Amino acid sequence: MLALDLAIMTGGFVDTRERQSLESLRALLVEHLRTMVLLVDRDGLVVAATRSTTRWLGGSPVVGQPWERVLPADLVTAGHLRAVVDDAVRTAARRALPRVDVRDPGAAGTRSYRVDVVPITHHLATLLVEVEDLTEVVDLEGRMRRSEALAQLGALSAAVAHELRNPLAGISGALQVISRSAPKDAPYVPIMAKVEREIRRLDALATDLLAFARQGAV
Questions:
Q1: What's the rounded Cα separation, in Å, for the pair 138 and 134?
Q2: CA neighbor of 78 nearest in space, from 34, 114, 51, 42
Q3: In what order do the strands lie in the sheet with 127-133?
């Protein structure tokens, strides 16, 4: 009996220690999440939040505050979050806003957010609100799209320049042949000289297009 009691006690101790280790790992994971995560009770008050939420709000207290006051006011307005939260609670279904753009007067630009509202079943909380700042990702996507557009424009410019230069070379060669055999006092000599000047101008334009194409390819 003593051995059995000892085994039961040892097993219970091991289970408890494993549960504590698991809980500490979960707490560590939540603590280092970069997204803002709020747990909200049935009265709309924040009962728990990730540490990044506090850092995001400049150290302002979060727990015990209404969730609308915790989140940026412009985000609540732009995303119609009050209606979204009410609908999620009423239907007991997750509501997701893949992207909400908010003007940032301090940075003279726009900040972008992803918002998830998830109803949960717990005696202390009825709602989970997750907010992720997508501004850097959106800016990177914009720069990539502009880079791709510039590369496509460069490729088009190179194609146009080559297509332009080929006939210009043929016309210039023909003019040179005609000029060598034409009398100096022929009435069409000034016209041929003007055509030659226009060919040189178009050739310079083709050179500029090729230079632009090379810049777009870098």
A1: 6
A2: 114
A3: 46-49, 36-40, 127-133, 109-119, 95-104
Q: Which of 157, 159, 171 is nearest to 200 (CA)?
A: 171
Residue with tokens 């609908």: 87
Can you tell me the distance from the alpha carbon of 100 to that of 110, in angstroms, rounded to the nearest whole number? 10
Residue identified by tokens 């609670």 is: 89
Q: Could you tell me the two tokens for 60? A: 């302002």
Check the CA dihedral 179-184-188-190 and report its sign: positive
Which residues are CB-contacts of 81 (< 8 A; sequence separation ≥ 6)? 68, 71, 75, 115, 117
* Residue 49: strand pairing partners: 38
Task: Decide if pLDDT at 1 tops 60.
Answer: no
pLDDT 10s digits, 128-179:
999 988 888 877 777 787 777 777 777 777 777 777 778 888 888 887 878 7
